[in-house]
Specification:
By secondary structure, the protein is mainly β. Strands 6, 7, 8, 9 and 10 form a five-stranded antiparallel β-sheet that branches. Helix 1 packs across helix 2.
Length: 354
């Protein structure tokens, strides 16, 4: 009798979990079993977590930090240690959307690591030194000036290997079908603060939704961005090459809602994986970093991994050893419960090999 009661409770739970999800009890149960759980979940931000970036501590990688945006009119940047504890913040930023990190930008001749975030409601980029998270931008500089549609959202930093010049590639809430992204060179404005010079306008836009997530592969010299509900577009990142031709459009199948966050996990100088968050399915889509055999711009799907982070926008990844907990690096995903989820790369690697 007790066994029958137990079976009935399980069936009742399964049926309840299926309501409004268009999934069978078997699919729900399999989802529970297969979902990769985070090794660390950060403390909550105040309003709305949106995008993370990983800063590697050059003295001790186990003391590296996660920089995350809190997207609100009274938003901010939060710093988390690798145990998920908040160790610093800068608030009062008007809807910071996405964030990225750069290393060694020279300010007054001194190499300075920086976090760059889009301040959507003021149409600006904001720049902060790391790891102290202090503003080094005199309030930021405006982007998409002269445009009817501005509202900056996505940000990715390209550091050119040849001369270590640092560029910010910025997307917006809406814009034209061509020239949707603008690229700015970052440098000392002469006062020890960061200024930006517009050097390029490029990139197609489908017009279906928006472009938010961007990632740059410095070694290959490629920039990737999510044209939501269309796919991931690929271009050259160096503005001085003067080549704005689209190199690839992939990730255009298998997404239940939006193709969102993009991260690059490097297993070698030019090997590894491109990760894209499948927002509606709560999964990570995995593609080869170096492309297909015979076609470097072909990126076939290698794996889809269900993860505990829900409705993920932004993600980031690193292969750097971050202490004993993350010996092969990690992937960080935003989750809609105002947190960021940290995943041990070894567990993701196992899912790719299956």
């Amino acid at each position: 009798m007790k066994r029958l009661q137990y079976v009935g409770l399980v069936l009742s739970w399964l049926m309840g979990a299926c309501v409004g999800r268009d999934k069978t009890p078997k699919e729900v149960l399999q989802e529970k079993v297969d979902t990769l759980q985070a090794d660390v979940i950060t403390e909550s931000v105040k309003h709305d977590a949106d995008d993370p970036a990983i800063w590697i501590n050059p003295q001790d990688a186990s003391k590296s930090l996660i920089i995350g945006t809190d997207k609100d009119e009274d938003g901010g940047l939060y710093m988390f240690d690798l145990n998920g504890k908040i160790v610093g913040s800068f608030t009062g930023i008007s809807r910071p959307n996405n964030v990225d990190v750069a290393y060694g930008l020279k300010l007054k001749g001194r190499p300075t690591d920086i976090a760059v975030t889009t301040e959507r409601l003021t149409n600006r980029l904001r720049i902060f030194s790391l790891p102290d998270l202090k503003p080094v931008d005199q309030g930021g500089f405006e982007v998409f000036t002269g445009e009817a549609e501005r509202a900056p959202m996505g940000i990715a930093i390209y550091t050119r290997p040849a001369d270590h010049a640092i560029f910010a590639i910025v997307s917006r809430k809406s814009g034209p079908n061509e020239g949707y992204l603008w690229q700015y060179r970052l440098r000392d404005n002469g006062n020890g603060e960061v200024g930006g010079e517009l050097v390029r306008k490029f990139g197609k836009y489908s017009g279906k939704k928006e472009i938010e997530s961007i990632a740059v592969d410095n070694e290959w010299g490629f920039v990737y961005y999510s044209d939501e509900q269309t796919g991931v577009r690929k271009y050259l990142a160096d503005p001085d090459v003067h080549n704005d031709k689209e190199l690839a459009l992939f990730g255009d199948k298998g997404f239940s809602e939006d193709n969102e966050g993009i991260a690059i996990y490097k297993t070698g100088e030019k090997s590894g994986y491109i990760l894209v968050s499948n927002q509606g399915s709560h999964t990570l889509m995995v593609y080869p970093r170096k492309g297909g055999v015979g076609d470097g711009h072909e990126h076939p799907l290698l794996a889809e991994i269900p993860v505990s982070a829900q409705e993920t926008d932004g993600i980031d990844a690193t292969a750097v050893r971050l202490g004993s907990k993350f010996p092969e690096g990690m992937v960080v995903s935003m989750s809609t419960d105002k947190t960021f989820h940290l995943f041990d790369w070894r567990k993701i690697k196992e899912r790719i090999r299956k």
